[in-house]
Amino acid sequence: MSFAKLTGLGIGTWNIGEDPKKKNDEIAALHYGLDNGINVIDTAEMYGEGKSEKLVGEAMKGYDRSKIYLISKFYPYHATPELERKSLEASLKRLGIDYLDLYLLHWRGNHRLSDTVRGLQALQKEGLIRKWGVSNFDTPDMKELFTVPGGKECFVNEDLYNLDHRGVEYDLFPWQQKHGVRFIGYSPFNSGNGDSIRVTQNLKVVARDHDATVHQIMLAWAMRSGRILVLSKAGKVSHMKDNIAAQDIKLTEDELRLINADFPQPTEKQSLDTI
């Protein structure tokens, strides 16, 4: 993956660190990812109310911090300069580090975006975060963000993106590309909704032709453009291995047409979906 471009495959950690019985498997999966070139980890203060960050911090011990790209997020009701600082300090403590590579507003709240940006700029100036961005923002939100002082410094927007949720392709993708804002897609299997993407015959055919699983095809599809970062959780080493192998799957135009037949591209504006 490219840290500069923020593309490729990253590790999502929602629901990781919450069950002590799964801890060893989850840490082993994170270690396998880090040992095999998957060096972007995405977490949030919301995930298990800090338990995910604690697990990530434990898993990172012994690794070169400079070679890991860490993303975390803060609650929208913490989106003021004072509360952002408190949230960040707590996240850094749980993670056992002294800076974040990327810090995101988790979703749109009631605080003024100008205050949120002002606080993030101060944290960035102090070196506590390298870059900042947002999550679960739609095109109108991004346009509004760009009207406030410093809003154009937004590095990334992270949104739900998978076969069942392609609405961002219609207007948000083009807008962000035009304005130089990177895109991160989360939940490529729609796992937050219980793996609810239907398994079609076409998906099975494509998977068979690549000697892959349907989930690997879903992940390869999400990464197909090479222009975005896709986050995928893996609670076991076997899942991490499957995710890593999906990076080598290159879907042909014919295969993409088969997939599009079941999961059409959006032809009009759709409301932004979240999990």
From TrEMBL:
Question: Which positions in this protein are listed as binding substrate?
Answer: H106
Q: Which residues form the active site?
A: Y47
Q: Which InterPro entries match?
A: AKR, NAD(P)_OxRdtase_dom_sf, NADP_OxRdtase_dom
Q: Per the database record, which ranges form the NADP-dependent oxidoreductase domain?
A: 9-260
- GO molecular function per UniProt: oxidoreductase activity
Site (Lowers pKa of active site Tyr) at K73
What is the designated name of this protein?
Aldo/keto reductase
Q: Which organism is it from?
A: Lactobacillus acetotolerans
